[in-house]
Amino acid sequence: MPTVTIERTDYRDPRQQDVRVQSRGNAKPTRNRARFSSIPTASGAITRTAYAKALEAGLDVEPLLKASGLSVRQVENSDFRIAVKNQIKFLNLVADALSDEFLGVHLAESVDLRALGLFYYVLASSASLGDALRRASRYSAINNEGVQITFRESHKQISIIFRYIGIARLNDRHQIEFFVVTLVRICRQLTDRHLSPITIKLIHRRTHLPARLKSLFGCKVIFGSAIDEVAYRQPFKNASIGDADPYLNSLLVKYCEEAISNHRVGSGAWRLNVENAIAPLLPHGRAEMAEVAQRLGISQRTLARRLASEGHTFGEVLDGLRFDLATRYLHEHDLPTSEVAWLLGYQETSAFHHAFKRWTGKTPKQTRSAQ
Question: If you ran DSSP here, which 8-state letter would residue 45 be given?
């Protein structure tokens, strides 16, 4: 393992920057600080990798950054943390500009894993793969506060589950695919074995996966799942890590514990949490308030109250999410309208047509023709 030099420096956080700006006016700084502390941020490694790729391709990057709520100064200074929603937006724009529908995968294939910093080294110095994945679960917020990683173990398998916190899962493909490929690479590099998962499950939908990417993963990839998960055979948790260093690991764990204490964020906007819970339930016709409340671990009454505090109702959130998803699905011309209706939780295609015309004034067929 390469020598690790740890420097105690203060990173620049966009949330703190916003607080200073607001404090110049009449607003109360304490109120602003509470509000901005709920914005999940990331170290920005993915954004910076995409930025470098865009520059290499000769793209005019500044308009893309501006449209994402970012600046050149933020991206070129690694001390700045970046809002996760801005990172997702930038990845989407770069992918469109490059016509690269698998941008997240391609970025993860080429990135130097050491660029993950403290997070990577605490995994690489662990004794076994199971220990490394447990640490990944505990310390993932150091690199990204908007995606919670959970390690689960059963008698047959171990798995890593990704859950979006305060960030809309609907808008993302590239960031989550970057995470998955990076996880697969880390497991292989740390153990020096070509470990392949049992399955990979992803919430977003794709109609195809190139043969090369199937070979990369070495397992079945299920899109349109109810969960984002990478599962391995249970015995793999005992795979030893060649660069294990218990003394270094103990030191890095202390730094990680200190770091995550500075990266605590709230649960995020309740509308986003509800949307993330609804999305995988729609195709199964189970997107009901009782089911969503149970998944979020609260009562229906509490859920209704928290949505109301943000000016929403459950029915409004459900309707809005269906509209957003319908707009996306109709761009996929190989997807029949009847299947779009099913994916949105409509038992009859006619019900979907009626709803879509209410939303847009057009039928799904007219919308596709215009595209």
Answer: H
